[in-house]
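One such shown below:
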Amino acid sequence: MSFLVYNSLSRKKEPFQSLEPGVVRMYNCGPTVYNRPHVGNYRAFLFADTLRRWLEYTGYRVEQVMNITDVGHLTDDGDEGEDKLEKQARREKLDPWEISQRVAQQFFSDLKALGIKPAKVYPKASDHIPQMVEIIEGLLAKGCAYEVSGNVYFDVSKFPEYGKLSGNRVEELEAGARIAVREDKRNPEDFALWKSDPAHIMKWATRFGPHGFPGWHIECSAMSRAHLGDRLDIHTGGEDNIFPHHECEIAQTESFTGQPFATYWMHSKFLQVDGGKMSKSLGNVYTLDDVAAKGFNMRQLRFALIRGHYGSPLNFTWDALKDAASALEGLDDLVRRLRRASKGDGAAADTDAGAALVDEARKTFEDGMNDDLNVSRALPGLFALRAAVLEGKLGAHSAARALEFVARANDVLGCIQLEDELLPADIESLIERRQAARKAKDFKESDRIRDELLGKGIVLEDTPKGVVWRKK
């Protein structure tokens, strides 16, 4: 089965095929570093990570770029409002450059905690001003843009395909509704490539004037071109990026290069919280620290955010996170049982017993992932293996093969505990004391220690080859 992806541009699933055999050039819209990203943001970044991991599983080399927006992203996501960095700087009474550096470092720390693979590069918008100016000059030369008093706007009327991604046709866009009216624009739907504002703190001198800064959309066009070339295989982002951001990226990039920009556009749906929208006023905008304060680890959060299909809304609740943690414990337990079965403990007498079950589990997993990264369809393959090993249906050889497959599957999922976890010294001591009590036939003390361990989240299982522990 070939890898099918839902392409937002065509609005249908399509077989994936890269421009260059064996290589995928992928650009992911990253954070605007004015405030620490929340769990909803990380759903989009984990989707991009899962996509990359699956492409690598299938044999591709992935050239992944994720940008850092540190200037030019205004509060209305268009040409009006305040720069998000500068607004935050005024609130905190700090320099915007200081805030961007601090938030970017926190972002990288969060990526590491969630097990997200590092991209090839994380370009910052402020480091790519010359590349932006080059594109803007090219668009002016082609008559696709115009300059008014230091501001430069893209002329949407020069790109007849504007709206092909979002479905927002120019003739249907109402001035003053989705798009703000500005007297210096030829058309209300035209968007800024470069802005002039003497009061803006983060600014650059160019031939357009001494105090300008880039529009949000031109930044991604310049950064993707600088690090991946004129054409991309995949461009991702959250569903809120479709319009105006990605629509404008397409218009300016294709007008400049004369080529299709990205073959596949993939967008993750919003993360809901308790069935509704995340809102600071409701106090439900959670960071990774908030999740940890509730007693959950980042493996559990990662699993909770990737196990639903990226193209469907996902409802985040603390109970849902508990369910995800429980399911992940089942997968951790699968690894422990497969490891023991591969050595003959709890395995079927026929060493090759269950070989077909392992093949079926692998097929279920791969078919699910090939169906537009449908993790929820892929996971039953792993849980079927757990049922098989619990029922003693796998021989030692089959268990070893299953263990290899689970490790490969985890190259995609990135959250299963593959190695034996070391216990704290006090827990090890309690287990040893319980073993000594059992050997002395002091079953009352043995049961007491078992209950004490259970209270600490450690479940013991007595087997013919000794005691086995797992976390509750």
